[in-house]
Amino acid sequence: MPEKKTDSGTTAVNEPDVRKKKRILLVDDDPDIVEAIRAALEASGYETIVARDGNQGLVLAETENPDLVILDMMMPKRSGFLVLERLRRTRRVPVRIIMITANEGSRHKAYAEMLGVDDYIRKPFAMDRLLESVNRLLAD
């Protein structure tokens, strides 16, 4: 274990950080976006789980029990809306969900909010904007 000097000059063993890392499920089919978001989340101390389509996202949401889901709206196999709707209907303990999308239509945002999304972020976005939302939602 790493050691450090205390104020009294004695050597103390650092206790390992026993706080559990918050787990974030990232569901997006764009590899560049996935890698950029994953790098930012992990640099901020979060554990990241990646799903490349909506069906895989639902499976991982069930098996990995993430603290938060970042969900793209437009994906193969199952859209972000269908994933959001299913997660809201089937989970006994609601998970925090941020939807990210390149779609600029206000109807889509209204629909996502009606389904219970916690935040809705339009692409392209500043990574700071996403991290602020993640930190805020996981601080509750």
Describe this structure in words.
The protein has 140 residues and is of the alpha/beta class. It has helices at residues 31-43, 54-64, 80-90, 106-115, 127-139; strands at residues 3-5, 11-13, 23-27, 47-51, 68-72, 96-101, 119-122. It has a single domain, classed as Response regulator (Rossmann fold), CATH 3.40.50.2300. Helix content is 41%, strand content 22%. Helix 2 (54-64) packs parallel to helix 3 (80-90). The radius of gyration is 18 Å and the shape is globular. The two termini are 32 Å apart. Mean pLDDT is 87; it is low at 1-8 and 10-18.
Extract low-pLDDT stretches: 1-8, 10-18
- Percent helix, as a range, is 40-55%
CATH class: Alpha Beta
Q: How many domains in all?
A: 1
How many extended strands?
Answer: 7
List the keywords:
five-stranded parallel beta sheet, 140 residues, alpha/beta, globular
Per-chain topology:
Blueprint: E1 3-5, E2 11-13, E3 23-27, H1 31-43, E4 47-51, H2 54-64, E5 68-72, H3 80-90, E6 96-101, H4 106-115, E7 119-122, H5 127-139
Helix pairs in contact: 2-3
Summarize the structure.
The protein is α/β, with parallel strands linked by helices and about 140 residues long. About 40% of the residues lie in helices and about 20% in strands. It has five helices and seven strands, in the order βββαβαβαβαβα.
